[in-house]
Design a protein that fits this description.
The complex is a heterodimer of chains A (about 350) and B (about 425). Chain A is of the alpha/beta class. Chain A has 2 domains: about 5-250, 3-Layer(aba) Sandwich (Peroxisomal Thiolase, Chain A, domain 1), CATH 3.40.47; about 250-355, no CATH class. Chain A is about 30% helix and about 25% strand. Chain A contains 12 helices and 13 strands. Chain B is α/β, with parallel strands linked by helices and about 425 residues long. Chain B has one domain (about 10-430): Peroxisomal Thiolase, Chain A, domain 1 (3-Layer(aba) Sandwich), CATH 3.40.47.10. Chain B is globular and about 65 Å long. The chains are: A alpha/beta (about 350), B alpha/beta (about 425).
Chain lengths: ~350, ~425
Amino acid sequence: MTPKLAAITGIGSVSPYGVLAGLIPQSHPEPECITAWPTAGLRRAFLVKPFRPASVVPGLKTRRLDRLSAWALVASSLAIQDAAIDLSQVDRSRVAVVFATGLGCVELTEAFYQSAAANGWRGTDPSPFPEGLANAPASHVALWHGLRGPNITVGNRGVAGECALIQAASLLRHGQADLAIVLAGDTLTRAVYEWYETAGLLSPACFNAEPLAEGHGIERGFVRGFVPGEAVAALVLEPAGRREVRSYAHFKTGRWAAGGQAVESVRQMLGGSVPSLAICAGSGAPCDSGSAAALARQISGPSAAIVPADTIAAGLADAGALLHLILALSSRPRSGPALLVGSSGAGCAALLLEIA
Amino acid sequence: MTSGRLPRVTDRRMNDPRINDRRMNDPCMNDPRKTIVVTGVGVVSPYGIGMDRLQAGVLSGKCCLESAKDLYPGFAGCAAQVGDLPLPSEGTSTRYSRSDRLAMIAGRDALAHLDGEGAAFRESGAGVFMASTVAGLSEIDPEIAGDPGAWYRHGGLARAATYPPSRVADAVGEDLHLYGPRCAVSAACASGAMAIALSANLLLDGAAPMMLAGGSDALCPFTLSGFNSLQALDPEPCRPFDQNRKGLNLGEGAAVLVLERLDAALARHANVLAVLRGWAMTNDAFHSTAPHAQGNGLADCMRLCMEMAEVSGEEIGYVNAHGTGTPLNDIAETHAYEAVFGSRSRPIPVSSTKSYFGHCLGAAGALEAAITIVAVRCGALLPTLRLTDPMEGSGVNWLRGEVLRQTLPQAMSVSAGFGGSNAALLFGEAGFGDGRA
């Protein structure tokens, strides 16, 4: 099948960098001290600063929602706004939502377990149950914006964000949607953080208050662990040329695999071309150890410019790809073909983009 | 393990000139590169392991729903459980959740259909797309809520690692040594059907030569308690589409379909079990838990599915409904059938096989896809059990009583879930495509 280009026309994000429409201004947020739950001493992570979703998206009611759902609503609204899309003029039965998450709505899942611990399984609180399902954020995005196209939530160890982008492009290519809102994200909770800690996955930077050294790169962070983070990033994806509108990049094609001949598979996808830019989307998994960069170097050769994985985006583990991509686009790379490469212990993903 | 060895359809039909003529005149079948076929089905259901057990079970009308009192202290209701579930290998009791294990056994069973060609597929870059709603929630205790660190230190660490839904796909892929695209989908109770639909898209994209697609979910206190707290459970065996329905029952199981393009299947003289003629996904965008009252999203989904397959409502011989037995779902679904099939010359035959072994959540869409394939292959219209006082449904033939036997060229499986997700899959008889209901 001849691939049709899909254009990225809108960006929104809720992340430690802020709550933003469009590109992310350059900054270097430090890990925050965790105060939301009791910790045995100083613990740090890349956290989203508390904000009122309704102050960003008027009328939004998020009190009963998991933070992941609330942030997905905000990020999707910002991306749609950035894409200058008037949804009242769009056939919303043709708009898909594809959401990538590693852990889903863990906050309300934990709340449900808390009610079971307090009252027994017979006395659980009904409100967190449906809202704790992994597809709740995508559903709320559909509900708020009235989007009646395919509504998909995917998970994929290490490369969930890349996978969501490929799936969304596939829906457009097959005519199953005319527009897709692609999101990826996770939130941090006590149970998640303590799992990382007990498993010995955390960077020493999580346990001291010292500022991260300038250029605290992903490779350096991975040597002795990672700093977990939280965010939701959103992109608007639509067939290229459908509207006269600015696009940040075009998605050309993508491949992902759980193993096997990763380099050969990506080279086959590239069909002989070698992009001069590779954007690494390190997954944050300690076993990743900078393998996205190694893979990118292997594919693109020594002359290619490699954008290293961002420490904060890598803190998202499975769902960091979209934030990685937004950050790379925010650094205003030269136009031309670029490869977004993600990897994890479970495999790799590569997306061929054309930077506008 | 008992593997459901189904009779080869292709052997006797692929060389039949009459059937080949019909196939070539069928717009969906005349381009084998754009036709997705099912060449294997692996199943773990309350009937046991294997498609043959599932087939025998549903054709006999056996109900697996039983009173279950030990699922958690104080639980009183009905559920359908899978009996003894073997561990995939020694020493893996904490590494894999029950949903993982169900999925792995279904995956092995699916590949057992491949006439010893499984090894070749392992090297071909075959992918895995699995759905799960429960995933590793079955392995996590409420004690985690008080002090997660302590719970992890006392044995919970490995169990918690099974929590992400992506783990189920990894378990199948790792167990079968499949290293192509691997992904999990979580769209509540429509997940299993979506995994199949999305896999079909990937095959058309050329992203993999073959996909193992399905769903797996285990019974666990988390979901039983959750649905109980929502007052959605019927304490007795459920009665979908009955005026006196009171709610749903939960079940557990897994189903994995082997999907590939027809050209690839023909090239290796595969045993084609069914053709996946159409698929579609929509969302109600109406309410976070309740379906659209008129079933608009589900109706759109079925129409899109038929559009893709280029068939009319007249050509659908049977619909395997979502049919949970909850008051709201069954009303919405009935309206959807009325809207889509109301203009047919004869009422559309519809049944809910959740009346046999309950609602298997993320696995339901995949298990019901397997049942729909059984229906097509056996020419069997399966009744809804315990349906004594059917709902009003203009243009709907609520199947009840005995199994009806008739040629069934095409049948649809419909799924819906919390969050307004809908999915529809249209299966056709292998080698046919122009039949009439």
